[in-house]
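User: Can you model how iron/sulfur cluster sits in this protein?
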Amino acid sequence: ATMREERIKKTKTVCTYCGVGCSFDVWTKDREILKIEPQEEAPANGISTCVKGKFGWDFVNSEERLTKPLIREGDEFREAEWEEALYLIEKKFKENRREKGPDSLAFISSSKCTNEESYLMQKLARGVIGTNNIDNCSRYCQSPATMGLWRTVGYGGDSGGIGDIAQAELVISVGSNTAESHPVLATRVKRAQKLHGQKVIVADLRENELAGRADLFVRPAPGSDLVWLSAVTKYIIDQGWDDKAFLRDHVNDVDEYMASLDKYTLEYASDVTGMTKEELIEIATSIHEAKTTSILWAMGITQHGGGSDASTAISNLLLVTGNYMKPGAGAYPLRGHNNVQGASDFGSMPDRFPGYQFVTDDDVRARFEENWGAEIPTEPGLNNHEMVEAIHEGNLEMLYLKGEDMGIVDSNINYVQSAFEKLKFFVVQDIFFSKTCQYADVVLPASPSLEKDGTFVNTERRFQRLYKVMDPLGESKPDWQIIQEIANRMGAGWDYSHPGEIMDEAASLTPLFAGVSYDRLEGYDSLQWPVAEDGTDTPLLFEKEFPLPEGKARLWPVEWTKPLEFEDQYDLHVNNGRILEHFHEGNMTYKSEAITGKTPEVFLEVSPQLAAERKLEDGTKVRLTSPYGSVKVSCIVTDRVFGKQLYLPMNTAGEGAINHLTSSHSDKDTDTPAYKEVSVKMEVLEPK
Ligand code: SF4
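Assistant: Here's the modeled complex, given as structure tokens:
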């Protein structure tokens, strides 16, 4: 081979853009990405990818990448050597811990980083600093789904794999923009519709792409899903269509639950949701007629004051109809970021160690203390939401945040940003100088996925390995190495030389992943948790029993929480979510020319009805104002939205950033922000 050919190599990686977890080979010549080549053997996607996975990688060579640590000086930042930056962090952390105690510090891990990095972040917080103040950004999206599943079936994960969704006779998608947020998964559904006549029902405020192809599309009023889900469940029971054998053998608390359904009549549900009785009956009948039903849901359900309860209602419906414990059936909360599942799986939570073991459990804590040689606090720490409050109250003074643009993606960002201003010391670790970095005292340059080894867990609980494609750019480093250096300066004495060693340690302490190892994840090999010590994994999460008392699931009564109410002047409801081309606040995709060439900015979707009433056209600039702030955006008129519904993609950090409008209101059980409960008034700035 010539020199030129030798420099060309291919490396397997896992996409960082969503929870589907597509894997593929990346062909590179030095730092140049030649092509993305999906492989038949890729477990989640085979030969498919979407536009982000296929083209969205040139950000790794962006001139805007952080390549050296930055230290604040007044209103400016100056470049610094690692030694100086790390010394400063050590000095500040030690001082505060000594003077104010370990709980004056807090740590936030990232659902974009690897499992090994989330594991180390919580080990740093708990085992080295001595605080359980550790969380990750799944608090912003999926914690309510996890809560709903813990309550009812015991494990917070998808019931089966993407293949199960494809083989279901009926798929119901609720509050999920599946085709844009989880494109390859949606492709599997579309193929199943064609190949075996899979029936699809979509419930959403917006006629998203999947809704356009659905057998039935319904538009329940904002935040009312719990009501129609419960009414459908009650109707099924009233018809005698509940799966009595399944309930007898596998479910507890049935009578108490049945009694709680009394008020969810078709009349009541129709009043609250605006759906017709015929629609409710059609959904119930479809579930009754299908041998297998899978329900997919996402942020349209979870990001509400009653997000955990609505998620619970979904699981209740599946239990009543016996749609667990068989291929093609079950609960599928669709995880957003590539490693939302893994960040929580690996213990970046204030109350749980890796594998969802409670920090309050003395035996569990003793096992970690012995292995780590550390004393771990006995009480749960603060979650993200509580951290912001604690900063405002003066009880939290230092924050170490990695891989998250919290100052843009948290709700009510004017409030969050003013909290950052109060911090005594703020360390932000990222690949770009995000909005949040503007508030930092030290900014540390990290490496994106292509520059490191590790593992992710996708939405179907599947562990997959990513291999290092290229060296870190400039002086940037993989997050796990940075965390290790900080820990060692705080006296830890860690000596991990490869993420595989971190995984070995985590697996040895966590029954849920006991048999996970890098050897078993070579190349395209993968494992779905729970993984037994001998390496047997669990494609179908529940086969014989549920991980709850007596091996039985639990029906869990829930009450509807009304969405936040706004004064009359805020007469338009703003729904928000993703668009296909961009990833989250856009820190990566807006640095990709391949992507911005197609979609340079986001637009506010307005309905034809509203356009006629307010004289809006494509391109009209408007200001939206909520009680919490305002944004300026350009309109696009589309019948995807209806009446007084607006849709503002969340994919911008600019003056259209949705979280200028959202409140601090949150799910009452998990503190997940109620991003979907926001109303605004509109002012037309300039017609085109
Ligand atoms: Fe990446 Fe998700 Fe697209 Fe797959 S579907 S290529 S994981 S963004």
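A couple of observations from the model: The radius of gyration is 24 Å. The chain has a mean pLDDT of 91.
User: Helpful, thanks.
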